Structure formats: structure tokens, C-alpha cells
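Exam revision sheet. Question 4 asks you to relate a sequence to its structure. Input first:
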Amino acid sequence: MSENANTTINGTQPSSCSSNPTAEKIGKTIAYCLIFLVSLTGNTVIGVIVYKSKTMRKPINFFIVNMAMSDLLFPIILIPSEIQGLYIDSWLIGGPLGQALCKLVVFVPDVSNVVSIQSVVLIAVDRFGAVVYPLRSPLISSKLCPFFIVATWIVAMAIFSPYLVAFKLVEYPEGLVCIIQWNEAFGENSSIKNYFTSLIVVLCFIPLLLIANLYIIIFQKLKSQKIPGEQSISAGQ
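Answer key, C-alpha cells:
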């Protein structure tokens, strides 16, 4: 989850940017811009290659494209906000548009992260089926692939839907601040700590264990297989 979700955006999160030398701010700005360009170029190229090449249009490659498109959203939404935060401590846009942007700047990057995590899990499942059960029908067929891709986005958006309620643009004497107001949105009985703890377990530990187990099984399967022709050569000797 993005660190912004645990505090505020542009204004209340602890920052030493205001005391940083101008050179450091410029250096960070250049680094952000380079990351943005590399991400934009790399992820776009992946999508174009799979789209133009019919032989590449397989479930595993569609999941890679899904992950690339989700990764593309992360810098597009987050990096402009980070660059602005280097130079201006308050939120620039007010009104309904400002409220919407306040929610989206935290919502979209975390949705992007979870879509990528789910895509990696689906790739592992696809490889598991192809290696361990090569003669059976694919676990994820081409017809089911679009369903799983759409499902990754729906699940991710559902998980972080509380952000759309909890994050609000609040006006202080120093300026506008995008801040999370969890108790105000969901009541005192709702614990933000429990919410984020659940996210860590469901979105980090469980996928990690699942992916690790699947690839361990794949490794053992490949290790147990003999190279074609090896058995006949051994018999001939």
C-alpha cells in the first residue's frame, strides 16, 4: 500500500522537503521524470508488442500486459503529485475536482499495486498448469482470461473502496490538505489498524506463499523429468 494511505497528501505528512537545498529538489525531480519516462515507455512497448503479434496472444502474455497497464497507472497518478509536493506543501485544486483528485491520488496507485500482485499470481497458476499438467486443458483458458483480468481490477477496486470515503480534502489556515479521516467516515468502532493489517496478510503474505509453493512444485516437476533422449542413450550404453 502506498505510504500516502497511512497519513496525508501534500501538507500534513512529515517532510523535510521544505528545508532541502534547491539542488536536491531538482535532483529528485529529474529522478522522478526518468522513472516516469522509463515506466511509460517500457510498459507501453509491452502492450504494443503483444497487440501486434498474434503468436504472443496467450493467457500468460495477457496477464503480463495487464500487469504492465496497471504499473503504468502508478507513475501517471503518483509522480506528478510527488513532484508537486517537493515545491508546494498544500493541495493546489479545491472544490469537487480537488476532492475527486484527493481520493484518486491514493486510490489508483494502490489499486495498481494489487492488480499487479494478482497478475503475478495468475501467471504462476498458468505456469503451474502448463508444467505440472501439460497434457490437460489449460487451467486458465483463452476464453477465461478476459474474465480473470477484469476480476483483478474489480477485486482491487473493491478492496480499496474505503479510500473513496475516508480520504477528504480539508482546508486549514496553511492551505488545502488531503487527509484520511477514517473514524469520521466509518465510526469509532472501525479500526484502521485492523484494515491495513488485513490488507498486508491478504495482499502480501498469502500471494507470496501461494506463488512460492507453485514455483517449488514446478521446480520439483522439472527436476524429476529426464531430458528427451537421455533414457535411450543410457540404455544404449
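Marking note for examiners. Residues 95-132 form the longest helix (38 residues).
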